[in-house]
Amino acid sequence: MKVVALVSGGKDSCYAMMKCIQYGHQVGHQIIVRYAECMGVPLFRRRIRGSTRHHNLSYRMTPGDEVEDMFILLNEVKRQIPSITAVSSGAIASDYQRLRVESVCSRLGLVSLAYLWKQDQSLLLQEMITNGIVAITVKVAAMGLDPTKHLGKEIAHLESYLHKLKELYGINVCGEGGEYETMTLDCPLFINARIVLDEFQVVLHSSDSIAPVGVLHPLAFHLESKAESTSLSGINRNDDVCWEKLALICEVQGDCFQGCEATCPYVDVVSDLVAVTEDKLQISKTKKDNTFSMCCWLQDSCKTSTGLQEDLKAVLKKIELQLVEYGFGWENVLYIHLYIADMNEFSTANETYVKFITQEKCHFGVPSRSTIELPLLQVGLGRAYIEVLVTNDQSKRVLHVQSVSCWAPSCIGPYSQATLHKEILHMAWAVGA
């Protein structure tokens, strides 16, 4: 895939780009001007005009939120470089950051790549150093880190000391708790030049005796050309992009309310539901302890149905009404078994499914799901048969990762990869006939 990278200038986002190339992707990026020169790729940047307006962990499209600035920025990248299909980010521990990138990617039809997410930070820091990330600290804000001693130091020089601070005070060795910030001066992706910092100033923001806060402000720097490049490179000029016509720096304008207008609003699909004879909808219920299951199908729908979409709408609506009748909602559902007559209609099933089961309706995470192809039509059960497992409490925990990562199971549908409830782990899966 051709990837645009969200880069802050620190070690994490730069190493995330390197991981993308390691997995066979081609990378461009958005960062400070000199990075574009070092890497030889165009830079798209935008001044943030929004603010944090949506405070929940899971993001919902909100006019004026800073996430809409990211939407506008990536939308412009996609417009100018249509071959871009994925976005790289350096999120390691932050679900807040990952979920916002995933939300924007979903709206733009892009794949989120989060290869560093939930990796062991000690191993990750060592990997970065071993693989040629040369980064210095530009901010320190943790017990044991002294602005006068530790600002401007390379992470390779500080590695052992950071591990010592982890043992003493429990800090995050990659700085995921805000303990420190970095700026990358060189890495294998810098095929043209490296950044050399000539002069800087240390500014003390807080002289707290336990955890002073200091920031390094660069005053002068220059680029040092690389005579021979043996660097890792994922930049392929033999594609559909006319690189010569792309400006090295592209300033992206637009109002942060624009992103919301560019995305289709939610439409209640239930209103266009074809009337279904009530006696054709069959439902059964089985109760055990603090959970119960419901099954729903459309009996003999092959005589009247026009396809999977119609059958699935009817079945999902029936289950939704039953849940409400019992005083529950989709947020109480732990697991869904979705049986369809033809796995070739998997995409159609997902398109209908997401109009009923959404993140907004499931505050604790969307339920896990299995999708299985069965010869339903042959036995008169329609094109869609659903079984849901429901709990009467809200103690479930879910793993819902839409990004491609180094360890999480690939999410190929609108459901969580796993749901944990009462020490039972419900895993998502799909099986074709």
TrEMBL record:
Leader sequence residues: none
Domain annotation Diphthamide synthase: ranges: 1-204
A Gene Ontology molecular function term of the record: diphthine-ammonia ligase activity
Catalyzed chemical reaction(s): diphthine-[translation elongation factor 2] + NH4(+) + ATP = diphthamide-[translation elongation factor 2] + AMP + diphosphate + H(+)
Enzyme Commission code: 6.3.1.14
Stored SUPFAM superfamilies: Adenine nucleotide alpha hydrolases-like, YjgF-like
Protein name as catalogued: Diphthine--ammonia ligase
Single Gene Ontology BP annotation: protein histidyl modification to diphthamide
